[in-house]
Amino acid sequence: MERKLYQYIFLIFFAFLTGYTFLVRASFYDEEGLPRFQQTSLRVMGENLAADYALFRLLESKTKPSEAYQSEKISSFLHKTIHADGRFYSYASPMKAFISVPFLYLPYNSFCETWIFWGLFLSGISLYTLLPLKVSLLLIFAFPAVFLSFISGGWGVFLASAVVLSLTLSEAYPKSAGFFAALCMVEPIAFILLTATFFFRRQFKAALTAVCSGIAFIGAGWARYGLEAFEEAFKSAWQVFSETPCLLSSFSSALMCSGLPLALSVVLQTALVFAVVYFGIRVFHNTACSQSVQDAYLCAALCLISPFTSLGDYGLLYAGVAFLMRDQEARGVLKGEVPFLLTAFLSIYLESFWIRLSGASLQLFLAVVLLWISYRRSR
User: Fold this and answer.
1) Under a CB-based contact definition with an 8 Å cutoff, are residues 262 and 336 in contact?
2) Pairwise CA distance, residues 126 & 139, whole Å
């Protein structure tokens, strides 16, 4: 009972602190989504989302994908429509554009507000499938996931919600789980690992639904935007990664920002992928390992595998933290896990100091630590 009380006090404190910080950050922008003070480094509310919005609008207006993905075209569109200055990049998949179609012709500020609302809503629904209602409601605001997505415009909170729902519903509602896994096709690595997890756990109905829905999803995107859009999305991602790696927050981009050449960074990223997969196989093959620990490992792995990970994508990290908390509810807290949780909840305040100290995002470090904690709990 006493431990529960301390937990609620902890979560209430961070729900208030993070929620207040979110509101303070939102106050930096005017009603059109532009920064109130032009001398700041801010450009527009949800900066990367603005670039994605411009890309989606260009694709919907039948602009050739080879032109729509050009930074010059995206930046020009944003300058004309919302008077945002600066250079903007987008490598969002056509599937994200397809999902966003019902909201695309809203003004950008309304589009961004709708996007934030759905992020909060889906995050709360997914957390409720994992943890008690009181804890879930507090975690919506206490977790930095929504804040990270808001300041960067990343889609991590949406991907995290889909991953959590697909993993938690896979036994009782396999078709629904398969559908949510198919939505993860917007990030193919997440879709592949989720489907592989279904097959490994012999959840064949969920796996089959995911594959069929995923194929239909790709087909719909292909029919609307053409195959060229998928090709250009990858080319654009590679261009951002190779030419402006400091815009990203992945392991290999951090190495490149530290001065390592592209080829060596890719080799080390590949080595990391092999290590993550190797230890992941050991975690999933351990019959004594709880499913929550496996799921926490999977979420941390998804943060580390892709070289195109941005700051907002670390919303997935907090899905992994939620799975860890679920296992802690069942089996207790191990040594070293309280400092990890405290750092995770404080990460948005420590991020800038950590980057100056190490040259890499604190979220990247936390993903590595969560991977290690999950592996230790699996033994």
Assistant:
1) no
2) 11
